[in-house]
Amino acid sequence: MADKTKICCIDVDKDIEEYLQEEHEVFSGSFGTRISMPKNAISSNYVLPNYVFPVNIHEYDVFVVDMIERLAKEYYPDDYVYHNNETTGVKHLISERSINVYNPIPYGAYAFFEEIQEKKDKRPIIIVFQHTEVYRKYYWSDASKEGHSNYDFCRMPEIKNIRGNQVTLVDNKASEILFKHYLGNIEYFCAFGCTKGYIPLLRNNNGECVSYIQNIGDVIVIMLPQIKEKKAFLKHLFEDYLYERFSEYFPYIQEKSWIYNMEYLLPNEESMQGELELVRKEYEEKKAEIETQIEENRGKYQFLHSMLTATGDELVKAVIEYLKWLGFENVIDNDAITDGDYEEDIKVDLGDKGLLIMEVKGVHGTSKDSECSQIEKIKHRRERERKAFDVYALYVVNHQRGIEPLKRSNPPFLPKQISDAEDDERGLVTTWQLYNLYFDIERGVIDKAEARDALLVYGMVDFTPRGAIKLGVPYHYCQNNVICVELKGQNVAVGDEMYAYDGRNWHKAEVKSIQVDKQDYESIANGHVGFGLNGELPEKAEVYVRGKG
Questions:
Q1: CA 319/CA 313 separation, integer angstroms
Q2: With 50 as the cut, is the pLDDT of residue 382 above it?
Q3: Nearest CA-CA partner of 245 in 228, 257, 233, 262
Q4: Is 246 helix (H, G, I), strand (E, B) or coil?
Q5: Distance of CA 215 to CAs 203, 212, 234, 237, 297, Å?
Q6: Three-state helix/strand/coil letters over 267-333
Q7: Per-residue pLDDT tens digits for 235-248
Q8: Number of continuous H segments (helices) and E segments (strands) in the chain
């Protein structure tokens, strides 16, 4: 029986070691551990390299290295004494008293390089999950000194520290096999100058190589980025790439792999394999079709995302597209026909109702008083021009636009800003409200006509369904969409619509039954009442009712 492959793991997580131990002989090694030095030390401290390698390292064929930075350990002087050593002339590394954390890892990387030079039978495979390059100078107790990088073990010709997560595949088979399904889970910390003999696997948005295979010289290096699903990726790397392309390194695996060759298929398997290949092909075609549909859909509804991210002309155009979708027929991009700084951004001709003017802003914070009220001056100017008091003014803001909307301050207006808007007869609304309103309308909770009317109300725009009466928060929620509410004079009948707001969206359900003490009612106005609904309403939210007629 073939021997198992010897694999040395360097600073690798336990779950990866356990996976590799299923089929291989695994050693748990390390380039070393950073050391937290004593604070307020009055003199320098002695330390020793603390790397861990197998004594028979020359017998190991595969090395897996994870360069991610790990926690430092506390300094104990006794850990850095040569025990059972009667020879004279031994030397220590010196940690200056000003150093808070001593890093022996670059020296360990250099020591690893020196150790594997002893391997002569075959080139070792070194699999590396890259991280930031670190260079350190080391001072010895005999006054000698040397400097090393944590990349000394693979002697890369050019390394540049640069961090990011946007990568693209390279036009070669290895790149596609290894990374096609992992592009969204990658982070790199270095870019490399890949010269002849280096096969690039991934490039960043600058076109720089951030992952490669080196298949020249005394070693084979597979340089990888950091990957969230590291164990799953490593399993994929070994089983779908290394076992096939470097089979001579894994005789124990290869000893039984021949049974899967075409020459030794079992009964019925050939047709099943054909069916499997057909399913794979159909899946890829369907996946490509759906991805195209997703991109087309994103293009169609881009204005909704622009309302949450954009400013300036892009934001104005997104709001205009939204208003047209909402059913306003005569929407004018005023910025396109005027060049004044103190003009409204958008005009909407309301016909007999008058004119709606809008100031649209995208800001990184929240709005100043002057920004909220600027539209008021324009409103008075338009009223004088029209000789009529039929001008509605609305301030539309994409506030804190650098933050995702669920983490923004909502509403972003101070109480005084809202009361001033009410007194000055102008409105305030956020693009986040408009975004959520889109989905309330699409679900049929609110109709477009009442949403258009809501934009003409003074103060903070409120999209509470028109005519809905507040009942309060239910005191009990039961199974099968039954809620219990205390009524105090508000009449509710079977067939009425109930609404609840979850802080983002409105929800609607119809009243299908009414009960008090197990007695059915067609309508009721007082008491502790149970309502059976045809849909679910969010819990701990105030409930409103509106007669269906």
A1: 10
A2: yes
A3: 257
A4: coil
A5: 18, 10, 19, 16, 44
A6: CCHHHHHHHHHHHHHHHHHHHHHHHHHHHHHHHHCHHHHHHHHCCHHHHHHHHHHHHHHHCCCEEEE
A7: 999 988 998 888 88
A8: 14, 32
